[in-house]
């Protein structure tokens, strides 16, 4: 790894929008409020659920149900260095250490293993879907078994074509209708169409603001690092139907817009290279992930994981199609197109891939996707062994070596292209050059 640590650029640190708290602080407060609302409901004797991150939560909001998210809870637990203890506890219960780290943390917590990383009430029901991966089904079945509670399941078929067929949409809408009947039986209430539509409107507003915030990575120099988006993942997962999250992301976009005008950035170092980071970050090792990149002036300006939660739709059928699209539930052609479009729009010169032991469906597709990047984009791609939650599966030294190799290749190519007068970045004509004197994103 480069021995020289790059100095911060003086005066580049962004400021909050006048009259507002920093957006990051606002968004942290939103997540705290979501969990606080769930605890308040629990204390009032109301039902509280656990939900998989891409369950169509709008259905539950039609019944005024408070819901929290085991994936978010597990990520926070891992980031606060308590994940390994819970993983070990789950293994002592008989769960194999080869299954997802999130699942092991969650199952241990569901069985009564305490953690102070984030307080989360135990569930009265679970909401599950398999558009993330099929492992979710068994994970949530086991939570339901531990607590002897209902599980409401929505099955999303794998999308082996780029367009979601009308037959599959029919199938999923039918399942939405069945889930509604189960929720009616669970709550003793009738489905409230008005509240459902309100939840959908807020979810679309939140998604639009989130995707807009993500889009600012396209500017050169970027007003943010992709690692900033990882810090806000809890909001787009846990508060998609909460107007407080929509307002927080709108404020975040205002901050990025202001940074574009003023020439500031949360990335406070020279932007020597811009890369795509593929996969879920290693939450227990965020600093070890970031430091080698920072020291070499490598800014992450394209991430797949963050915008994958930006569901936008109009009506129940479009909603079914939107929720069908997740990184692990679409065909290779879709997966390649998503990433290559982002690479072109955001102007990258390399890619760094997490072969995430906890997420085998995601990592399993990566060799072919990597091959296509190299062929279609002509960029260097390196990968490292990691894990989203279990720190035993991440080697800091291996990671440093892989980043060093990527930087050396990008340095060589940069020198060659600059000598020929060529643009350094992939399809850079699609990347938005910053012009401080003009308005930018509408």
UniProtKB/TrEMBL annotation:
Could you tell me which Pfam families the record lists for this protein?
HGD-D
Primary gene name? hgdA
Q: Where is the composition biased (Basic and acidic residues)?
A: 414-423, 430-442
Q: What is its EC number?
A: 4.2.1.-
UniProtKB keywords: Iron, Iron-sulfur, Lyase, Metal-binding
Q: Iron: is it a keyword of this entry? A: yes
Q: What class of enzyme is it?
A: lyase
State the needed cofactors, names only.
[4Fe-4S] cluster
Give the protein name, as stated in the record: (R)-2-hydroxyglutaryl-CoA dehydratase alpha subunit
Q: Which InterPro entries match?
A: FldB/FldC_alpha/beta
Keyword set includes Metal-binding: yes
Question: What's the domain of life for this entry?
Answer: Bacteria
Disordered, as annotated region:
414-442
Protein family: Belongs to the FldB/FldC dehydratase alpha/beta subunit family.
What would you give as a GO molecular function for this chain, any one? iron-sulfur cluster binding
